Every structure is written in C-alpha cells, then in structure tokens.
Amino acid sequence: MKLLCSVLLLPLFFEGLLAQCPAPSNLVNDVGEKLCARMFEHSNMYFDQSCGGVYLDAMNGDDFPYMPSGWGNKISSLVVANRCTLKVWSKSGKAGNNRTFNAGVVYQLKDYANGLFGDWNDSINSYYCTCT
Ligand SMILES: *[C@@H]1O[C@H](CO)[C@@H](O)[C@H](O)[C@H]1NC(C)=O
Ligand SMILES: *[C@@H]1O[C@H](CO)[C@@H](O)[C@H](O)[C@H]1NC(C)=O
Q1: Is the residue at 76 inside a domain?
Q2: Nearest Cα to Cα of residue 54 among 70, 34, 40
C-alpha cells in the first residue's frame, strides 16, 4: 500500500516543478483523445518550466460562456492544438475583451495584451474552442 501511494503521488508532485508544455501537434488527453486546447494554472518565465499546475482540457466544439467551477481568472498558460482555435473572453457570458489564439504554445498569458493596460494572465472567463 505504501509503495502504491508513492508511485501514484510522485508524478503529481513533479508535474508542477518540472512542467513542460505539450506540443500542439500531439495534444491529447490522458486517455489519448485529441484535444482542442489545454489550459494551465501556472506559467513561468523559463519557458521549459511553463504549463504547470492543474489543467483544463477543451475538446473540439467546447463552448463555455461560464467557466467550469473554479476556473475563472485562473489560467496562466495554454496550448492550442494544430488546426484548432481557442477564443477567450475576459468576462463571463462572452463579455469584456476577447482574443483568439491559434495553434501554438502560449508560455505566458501575461505577455498578451488585454485591453489598453491589462494582460491575459488569470483573466480568462469564457472560452470557445474549435478545430477544422
Ligand atoms: C471581440 O471584441 C471586439 C472589440 O471589442 C468586438 O467588436 C467583437 O464583437 C468581439 N467578438 C466577440 C465574438 O465577442
Ligand atoms: C498571474 O496572476 C496570478 C494571480 O494574480 C499571480 O499570482 C501570478 O504571479 C501571475 N503570473 C504572472 C506571470 O504574472
């Protein structure tokens, strides 16, 4: 039992410390289904340590005017899969500012302007993800 616990807990523990953004060309969930995007709780100025913390998966067609519980103002980095587009809004109900992210890695949402003075770190409150 003790061994089992260690085996299960270790990957979770290291996930946050040694995070690495997944490639847009190979973005799948834990059971191998193709994702539209994966959004992460943390970012890092060292890009090879970005995409840390817990994550939220978006499938093709996922339309969330209201974030899943606990996810408002929480996302700090993200990856959009090839041939997919993630549209985000700064306020729930698809209000406030909006921005479209095409396929690629966004290591720090902080680096993307949101309105005149803001940025997108911890500012996503609606999203819509589609793939062609
Ligand atoms: C995105 O923001 C622009 C500028 O405020 C606005 O004109 C447009 O309608 C918005 N698009 C969506 C889909 O909310
Ligand atoms: C993003 O926002 C959170 C909450 O305000 C903050 O703790 C974190 O340092 C911010 N990240 C960056 C890269 O600014």
Answers
A1: yes
A2: 40
Sole residue written with tokens 């993307």: 112
Ligand 1 atom closest to the Cα of residue 87 is: 13
- Of 42, 44, 52, 46, give the one whose Cα is nearest residue 19: 52
pLDDT of 16 strictly over 60: no
Q: Is 110 in the pocket of ligand 2 (CB under 6 A)?
A: yes
Determine whether the shortest distance from the Cβ of 119 to ligand 2 is under 6 A. Answer: no
Question: How much is the average pLDDT of 111-132?
Answer: 97
| Ligand 2 lined by 125 (C-beta under 6 Å) | no
Give the chain's domain count: 1
Domain ranges, residue 81 = 19-131
Overall residue count recorded for the chain in this entry: 132
Q: How high is the pLDDT of residue 105?
A: 98
| pLDDT confidence tier of residue 5, bands split at 50, 70 and 90 | very low
For residue 98, give the ligand 1 atom closest to its CA. Answer: 1
